[in-house]
Task: inverse folding
C-alpha cells in the first residue's frame, strides 16, 4: 500500500501465506489468521486519508471476515463473488447480505451456483458489480485474489478457466485506471492446485504490470 500510494509502483501483488479473508477481528477462521486485505484497507484510510476503498474478492469462498470488518462502513465497498454458501464453507455470503446500518448498500454478494464458469461470472460482474463499483468511484482497489474457483481446484465446484481469471484481472485494472489513478493491490488468498497457481499467478502479475500475456495460444 505504501509503495502504491507513494507512486513507486502503480500496482502490487502480495504472495502471502496464510491467506486472510476469513479472519474476523477477534477470531481466526478457515486457514486465515489475520485479514490482510482488511488491515490494508484500514491502513490506507488512516495513513493516507482515503475515503473510498473498494475490496473485490474472487476467492471461491465468501470473504466473511472482510465483510464482517466493513459491513457497517459506507466508505469501504466490498464485493465477494463465490460459490453458493448453501454448498460451501463458510456458509455466508447470501445476496441478501448488503451491509448494516450506515453501511447498507456497501456490501455486494454474488453467490454463484456450483458448476458456474466464465460466462456466468462475466454476466454477474458486468451486470451487477461493475455499475455499483463505478458509482462508488474508488480511490484504491484491493483484490482478494483466490485461485480456488478454477475448474481444476480440488476444494470447490466453480469451473473458471485460466482466461476467466485473466478477464477479471483486466476488469479490475481498468476500474483502477479509471477511478483510482491505477492504484491496485492484489493479495493472494486461496488456491490449492499448484499447476493452476503456476500458470495463473504469473499471468495475473503480467496483467497487473501491463506486460504481454504469458499464455501460449
Result:
Amino acid at each position: 500500500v505504501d509503495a502504491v500510494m507513494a507512486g513507486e509502483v502503480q500496482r502490487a501483488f502480495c504472495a502471502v501465506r496464510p491467506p486472510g479473508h476469513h479472519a474476523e477481528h477477534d477470531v481466526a477462521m478457515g486457514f486465515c489468521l489475520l485479514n490482510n486485505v482488511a488491515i490494508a484497507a484500514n491502513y490506507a484510510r488512516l495513513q493516507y486519508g482515503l475515503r473510498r476503498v473498494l475490496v473485490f474478492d474472487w476467492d471461491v469462498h465468501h470473504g466473511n471476515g472482510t465483510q464482517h470488518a466493513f459491513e457497517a462502513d459506507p466508505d469501504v465497498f466490498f464485493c465477494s463473488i463465490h460459490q453458493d454458501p448453501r454448498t460451501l464453507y463458510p456458509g455466508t455470503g447470501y445476496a441478501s447480505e448488503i451491509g448494516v446500518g450506515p453501511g447498507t448498500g456497501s456490501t455486494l454478494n454474488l453467490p454463484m451456483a456450483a458448476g458456474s464458469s466464465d460466462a456466468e461470472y462475466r454476466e454477474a460482474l458486468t451486470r451487477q458489480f461493475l455499475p455499483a463499483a463505478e458509482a462508488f468511484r474508488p480511490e484504491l482497489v484491493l483484490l482478494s485474489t483466490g485461485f480456488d474457483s478454477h475448474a481444476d481446484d480440488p476444494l470447490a465446484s466453480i469451473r473458471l478457466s485460466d482466461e476467466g481469471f485473466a478477464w477479471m484481472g483486466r476488469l479490475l485494472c481498468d476500474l483502477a485506471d479509471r477511478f483510482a489513478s491505477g492504484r491496485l493491490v492484489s493479495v493472494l488468498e486461496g488456491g490449492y492446485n499448484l499447476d493452476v497457481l503456476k500458470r495463473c499467478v504469473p499471468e495475473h502479475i503480467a496483467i497487473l504490470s501491463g506486460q504481454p500475456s504469458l499464455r501460449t495460444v
User: Anything to note?
Assistant: The CA atoms of residues 94 and 109 lie 6 Å apart. The two ends are 34 Å apart (CA to CA). The chain has six helices and six strands. The longest strand covers residues 76-83.
